Amino acid sequence: MTFVDLTFFVCAAIAIYAGWRVFRTDSMVRASFFLLISFIAVGIIMLLLAAVYLGVALFFMMAVEMMVMALFMMMFMMNPAGLNPMNMVHQEKVAMGIGIAAFVALSGVAVFGDFPSRPVPDGLDPVVSLGKELLGNSMLVFESAGVTLLATMIGVVAMTSHRGRFGEANEGSVPPGLEPGGDPAGKPQENDQKQQGHHHHH
Amino acid sequence: MVETLFALLVVLGMLAVGSYAVAVIDGAAGAVLGRTAHSNVFLLPIYQCASFWLVPANTTEAPDAWAWRLAPVLYLTFAAMGLALVPWSPSFIPVDLTTGIVLWGALEPLATVAIFLHGWSANSHFPLLGAYRYVSLGLSYILVSMFVLIGVSLPAESLQISAVVESQRELWNVIRQPLGLPLFLIVGLGISFWGPLNFADSSDLAEGTSSESSGRAKLLWQFGRAAMLVAFSAIGASAFLGGWLGPVLPGPAWVILKTLFILVLLLVLGRLLPRLSPDRFLTLAWVLLLPLAFVDLVWAGVEALP
Amino acid sequence: MMGGKPYGRAMAMTADDLRDGLQLDPLSFSVGPFWPVLPPGFSAHVTLHGDVIAEIQVTSIPYPVALPAIFRQALEKPVPIAELELARACYHLRQLSHALWVNGLESASLTVLQRIHALQPGDSLAGLRTWLRRVGFFFSAGAEKGVLGRDQAEKIGGPAARAAGIAQDTRQDDPQYQRLGFQVIYGHGSNCRARWQQWLDEAEQALSLAARAREQAVCTSDCDRVETPRGVMGRGGSPSDATFVLQELLPGLEWSEAIATIASLDLAAVSDYAEEGV
Question: Which secondary structure element, helix H or strand E, spans residue C232, and what is its range?
Fold first, then answer.
């Protein structure tokens, strides 16, 4: 077993273990960072596959993404500090079924598939060839996707901005009702008995 | 094998010597700017280390113990990885990745995660506030840093740090892209939360993310911050001040001199300037620094046109 | 489940935000009384929305502050103005050094503390002022925040009131001070910057008054009232605590601005006992 093989097995084990922990942990922040660990392990495997740029790019993409995700979940969801136990899963039976089916299918492809044996030619520079691909034949696809994403981001920021063109963005706004035409949701209930059933976990 | 071992030793040595240098320079800057040096500036860091070492470790109620202990280690590891990317001479580069610049760019967000974890895992309000604050600012640091680094890799036509150094043989990037180094220095102060940009561990939050840690955990955290500052200076020296290039002296000597220059600049700035409010700095970062980074990138692109 | 104190730790629960109606998590906790950034003895219960103070309730007011003995002696007999004004300058500079430390200027703060020990009548603070202006202290955290209303400023009294443009100073009624050419210094803006500058201005004025008073060996003539660095103290009473102003002043401020605001105000009552000599 070479060093590369050993690294692969260790990283693969870490990726799977951390991926499993995402669903077993009881905090949003921990879940996000277990997912990050899983992705980093996959990134190292990509480095082993000589996809140098993609592997390293995975590190920073996922680091920022998971950080933002953890933060937003803490800001918007219950259990903000994330250190108190909470139930992290719902509809788990369906999800488990789909997960197992997907795993079996993909593993089947990996094990029984007939992959061509084409060693990377000597002197291939993956970063240069990736750059040529991105800014060559596939330029139109990537650039339109990029510009669309950028336009979306600017649009979202403009729409959620506090200072709107016609005054304060939240002026006179009320949350939508739970049923069509109903009272705005989220208003504190004066009658205590109506509060039953509010204490569900999420 | 011998070469790998030697490279490892150099990186570890740089960690230790660099952090010591940070403590000495910072102490000297403090003494010059008005703090009485009670003892020798050279011995003081060692005394401080010893006192941190002997102080018992603190704990809080129900912390995330793993993350709390691991965060300083992770932060230090990221600093060490950054130092490993620094090319010392054309023939001696501990880790010569073709995507060195991108890996450095990845270390910054990963460090953000480590800083956040350090504050979050203590399960206490001041560390949590420091962590929140850092993340809200960290995104702007990362963006500025990435644009500036893409700027230096344009004339080199490579993402390899040694190629970036080699591309400065005729003209250093600090002159070719005058906006680059100042922006990079600001990011450096931000990522190691030093001086005016010390928002995560600031005095108004009772030392923020590290307010609940003490003893060896705190020592490790401070060590990591100093090491990150050294790594930043060394990468800055390679990306903007021509790294090993220079007359008479051998390459590694130039790297050390240039790194020390940036380090002194950062530490003196850190001592001199007061802290802005995070809110105001955030506005400044998005409204002024980010557009300046764009200008830097356009400048680099136009300049790199054949 | 949200809110409450599971495991003895405060846990946040979403509530309306001060700024944009987006429901975020308020975080409630207590600060003080042992935190050196706050006045000794001061503790409060704070509710934060993110980094912004939504509510602050003072749970314990700071300990009364002991002034140098000279201010109490001034109520008993005429005292040398030189000594009185030097003590005033030291007091203001000590406040300023704390504000510098809070805003991350540790070195400058220590420099000011060192100056206090060797302060002499007639010393100029122009160098310090230029230094602080050049490094941007007057634009640091909270500089434009913590604006006091006129009522609040009057209630606090002393330099905080004068920084709000209220030209009130007992010294102007004292003929001896008038002989020395005393003019009330007052600022405008009533924000942290105005108060920092007020301390600096008054300290500088006190030093020059002290120099002139020492030459002419002038003593105070009014023994009924004395202008302490904290406000007017008379035989009837001394400046009382004004900490509750913070409950109106701080909500809406970002944390570091709130801390800078607290550091820019001297709110503790004046103790009946004088500071003991070192």
Answer: strand C231-234
The reply to whether ipTM tops 0.90 is no
Would strands C43-49 and C52-60 be described as parallel, antiparallel, or unpaired?
antiparallel
Q: Which residue has the tokens 């084409």?
A: A118
Dihedral, B111, B258, B159, B89 alpha carbons, nearest 10: -120
Q: Do A70 and B116 touch (CB under 8 A)?
A: yes
Question: What are the sequence ranges of the domains in chain A?
Answer: 1-83, 125-162
Domain count within chain B: 1
Task: Work out the number of other CB atoms within 10 angstroms of the CB of residue C83.
Answer: 18
d(CA C42, CA C247) in angstroms, rounded, equals: 13
The residue among B81, B77, B90, B142 whose CA lies nearest residue B112 is B142
Closest by CA to C254, choosing from B50, A99, B279, B149, is: B279
- The pLDDT tens digits for C106-133 are 888 888 888 888 888 888 888 889 988 8
CB contact under 8 Å between C107 and B30, yes or no, is yes
Q: If you count residue pairs, one on A and one on C, with CB atoms under 8 Å apart, how many are there?
A: 37
Nearest to B106 among A27, A60, A127 (CB): A60
pLDDT in tens, A55-101: 888 888 888 888 888 877 766 554 545 555 666 677 888 988 998 99
Chain C residues close to A186, C-beta within 8 Å: 23
Q: Does B142 touch chain A (CB under 8 A)?
A: yes
Is the Cβ–Cβ distance between B19 and B226 less than 8 Å? yes
Q: Map B207-246 to HEC letters.
A: CHHHCCCCHHHHHHHHHHHHHHHHHHHHHHHHHHCCCCCC
Q: Which domain holds residue B251?
A: 2-304
Order of strands across the sheet with C43-49?
C26-31, C43-49, C52-60
Q: How far apart are CA B168 and CA B93, in angstroms?
A: 17
Chain C residues in contact with B276 by the CB 8 A cut-off are 139-141
DSSP C14: -
Interface contact flag, B279 C257, Cβ < 8 Å? yes
Q: Is the dihedral of CA B268, B269, B272, B275 positive or negative?
A: negative
pLDDT digits (tens, 9 = 90+) for B15-26: 899 889 888 888
Tokens describing residue B239: 């990306």
Neighbours of B162 (CB within 10 A): 24
Judged by CB atoms closer than 8 Å, whether chains meet at A173 and C13 is answered as no
